[in-house]
Design brief:
- The structure holds two protein chains of two kinds.
- By secondary structure, chain A is of the alpha/beta class.
- Chain A is built from five helices and twelve strands.
- Helices cover about 20% and strands about 25% of the residues of chain A.
- In chain A, the strands form three sheets. Chain A has a six-stranded parallel β-sheet, with helices on both faces.
- The relative contact order of chain A is 0.18.
- Chain B is about 50% helix and about 10% strand.
- Chain B has 23 helices and twelve strands.
- The longest helix of chain B has 23 residues.
- The chains are: A alpha/beta, B alpha/beta.
- Chains A and B meet through α1, α4, α5, β9 and β10 of A and α2, α3, α4, α8 and α10 of B.
- β9 of chain A pairs antiparallel with β9 of chain B, so a sheet runs across the interface.
Chain lengths: ~240, ~500
């Protein structure tokens, strides 16, 4: 007997108290819990997202479409980022003021040339052949997101064109995530799951990487990005 | 090596360790206050808790329906599913899968299931090095130590001890600790980051567990804080996940309940910093080979026990540890298992049986105060199961062991307890005898020992003997109210 058959046979023997006529649907699950915790206007929802993001030590910025390229350039410049990783499908105008050209990440950090914009970070476009070591040599990464959850201060990335592979938002030490508000913001976890496709690989991010393993003191950034900048862009 | 002494003896040593007790007290009290605040934010907590329990019950009662569905969905998404009846089989499967890659190193996400089966040791015997990448697990691994808490396995260590472990041992496993390493949490975390990054960037094989598996979609879910999980789940070419069969949930929608219950119960956060979900493999993103090893290892035996079955609802949040007065004083090592605290006291004897002195003693590692039940996000009635398992230990009876129904004998060492209870039952049925006994006890007060002799010694070693009052209740009643109520006496 295969272990599969053995385990399934054990399960059936273990469940002799379950009537044979019972179906899973016969075991009631009361879904009377809240779909959201509070009624909010769109503006209130975005404000709550900002508050909860900040509470978990993400740095929150607000702008509009016209202001986005300038803000991104400033955040990267303040950070001293010489290279910035971008998913292949990131809207090109986002980094219009950040520098020009794309380069290999392996040369990152050494002699990056200033671009035509106001910033100096050189763009490194992600691609399948980029090794983890190349990604680790990049200073910052900019992505979009799929949905943001106000009640928990969570960003969810689903690998869409402006988000790229799961690893890009992980390996560099500085992640800038752009959220379109209010359209990408939902109130709650149940609403977020409704919007997400389980067939795609998902990454839920709530604040920067953190640990509480040493005497339960919270320390930011053990393995993931130590700094998370979130830009809320009004439509 | 795991302590194999029965709980009272292991706990007695821990209770005498002042530093351990201070570390534990600080940690458990800190997190229990935070948890209460995080839970209070959700007015529908009790409804979520009931839904979480109900979803798990639905799953457990129809596990033979959901596991094949899960297998089908994972396979359709490009994963491969393996079934392991016990620890040895699971270890062999993982060893073979790693060998097939030609690699001799794996990076690991913290996983209770792989601790339970002793995977790291099994890999080491085959020449494969497993690197633990969770900060606390790294502290435990470098210190040749054992985890003592489900969520924060190095909770028994303070910063000075961690500094010493890093300075002494990091070089043996890879990049040494920086010169002059200090003991602030930030410095220690940075040392771990540098040490482990080398491993992440070169690892070809990752090993993980999972918090949830969704039957309808084949989706795996890992909940974490540090990002080491994301590293192990996405950078290697091959990913092997070892997951207990009870971790399946029926639908994608069910995650809406557990992703609210788990973080608030566990780390007392609205949401943990990182959650990863994946369904089979995705072209160009993450490992291109995914293996899921479904682990029984005693779970179907627990399933066969209609009272104990509820322990399989557990989502490993560790809230029960943080409120338990016994855990707080004894620490996690005394439980001799990957699962310490109240949940360990009911899970371990069900997964392993009650055949050893340690496993037979675990249902007694509790004051039955009920705090664990109050905080459990899936409403496991831990005290009920503890009492049920005590009965099994004392009385023996029918159980399922490795899938076979067996009648077990009472555990050794409980003969005196059984005799005492039988004598008590007889005395309560014979009021004259009871009265005489009580009067005798009251009149011999000065002669009472602080510890019982003979077979009762083990019992009184860990308990203060009750003081016998100078007069029994019955005598007091007769003396003060007897006249008035004498007409009611038979």
């Amino acid at each position: 007997m295969s272990s599969r058959d053995l385990i399934l046979a054990r399960i059936r023997r273990a469940l002799t108290d379950v009537p044979r006529s019972e179906t899973p649907a016969d075991v009631p699950v009361d879904r009377g819990y809240a779909r959201t915790h509070g009624e909010r206007t769109a503006a209130e929802r975005v404000a709550l997202l900002a508050e909860n993001l900040a509470d978990y030590r993400a740095r929150v910025h607000r702008t509009d479409a016209a202001g986005l390229p300038g803000l991104l350039a400033r955040l990267l410049a303040d950070r001293g980022a010489r290279t910035v990783l971008v998913p292949a499908g990131l809207p090109t105008d986002w980094l219009a003021k950040t520098g020009s050209g794309t380069g290999s990440a392996s040369g990152a950090g050494a002699g990056a040339e200033p671009g035509s914009g106001s910033g100096t970070a050189r763009r490194v476009v992600d691609a399948a052949e980029r090794t983890p070591r190349e990604l680790a040599a990049v200073d910052s990464v900019v992505t979009g997101c799929a949905v943001a959850i106000a009640e928990t201060g969570t960003l969810v990335l689903d690998g869409g064109p402006d988000q790229g592979r799961r690893r890009v938002s992980l390996v560099p030490d500085h992640h800038v995530c752009v959220v379109r508000v209010p359209e990408q913001v939902v109130d709650s976890v149940p609403q977020a799951l409704d919007r997400l496709d389980p067939a795609r690989p998902l990454t839920w991010i709530s604040g920067p990487s953190a640990t509480s393993d040493i005497e339960l003191n919270r320390v930011e950034g053990v393995h993931g990005p130590r700094t998370l900048d979130v830009i809320l862009v009004a439509d | 090596m795991p302590p194999r002494a029965a709980f009272p003896r292991a706990a007695a040593a821990a209770v005498g360790d002042a530093r351990l007790r201070a570390n534990l007290r600080h940690a458990t009290h800190t997190i229990r206050a935070k948890r209460a605040a995080a839970v209070a934010e959700l007015p529908d907590w009790e409804l979520l808790r009931a839904a979480g329990a109900a979803i798990k019950d639905r799953t457990l009662r129809h596990l033979d329906h959901y596991l094949p569905r899960l297998e089908e969905a994972v396979t359709a998404a490009g994963g491969r599913v393996h079934w392991a009846a016990d620890a040895a089989e699971a270890n062999r499967i993982v060893v073979d899968l790693v060998r097939a890659t030609g690699e001799t190193e794996v990076v690991k996400v913290k996983s209770m299931a792989t601790q339970e089966i002793g995977l790291n040791a099994a890999l080491a015997r085959e020449g494969i090095t497993a690197y633990e990448t969770d900060l606390a697990e790294l502290i435990v691994q470098l210190g040749d130590d054992l985890p003592s808490h489900i969520l924060v396995p190095a909770i028994h260590r303070n910063r000075g001890e961690i500094r010493d472990i890093f300075a002494r041992r990091m070089g043996d496993w890879g990049r040494p600790a920086p010169e002059g390493l200090g003991d602030t949490p930030a410095e220690l975390a940075e040392a771990a980051r540098l040490h482990l990054r080398e491993k992440f960037l070169t690892a070809k094989v990752g090993v993980s567990g999972a918090n949830f598996m969704v039957a309808e979609t084949g989706t795996m879910v890992v909940v974490e804080s540090e990002g080491n999980g994301r590293m192990c789940l996405t950078l290697p070419e091959t990913l092997i996940s070892v997951v207990g069969v009870e971790k399946v949930v029926p639908t994608w929608r069910d995650l809406e309940v557990f992703l609210q219950l788990l973080p608030r119960s566990s780390t007392a956060e609205r949401m943990n910093p990182y959650t990863s979900t994946w369904t089979g493999t995705t072209d160009g993103d993450g490992p291109h080979v995914f293996h899921l090893v479904l682990l029984d290892n005693g779970r179907t035996d627990a399933l066969a026990d209609t009272v104990g079955r509820q322990a399989l609802r557990c989502i490993r949040c560790s809230a029960c540890l943080n409120v338990c007065p016994v855990y707080e004083r004894a620490g996690g090592h005394a439980y001799g298992s990957a699962y310490p605290g109240p949940i360990g006291a009911i899970l371990t004897p069900q997964l392993r049986g009650t055949g050893t002195p340690l496993d037979a003693s675990l249902p007694y590692a509790s004051s039955l105060c009920g705090a664990c039940y109050e905080v459990c996000p899936v409403a496991i009635d831990i005290p009920e199961v503890l009492v049920h398992l005590r009965e099994r230990v004392v009385q023996g009876g029918q159980v399922t062991l490795r899938g076979t129904r067996t009648v077990i004998k009472p555990a050794r060492g409980h003969a005196a307890e059984r005799a005492a209870l039988r004598a008590a039952a007889w005395a309560f049925d014979h009021p004259g005898v009871l009265r005489a006994g009580q009067r005798l006890a009251a009149r011999t007060l000065r002669l009472h020992p602080r510890r019982l002799p003979g077979p009762g010694r083990a019992w009184s070693d860990s308990r203060a003997l009750p003081e016998v009052p100078a007069e029994s209740f019955r005598d007091w009643w007769l003396r003060t109210r007897g006249e008035r109520d004498s007409h009611e006496q038979p």
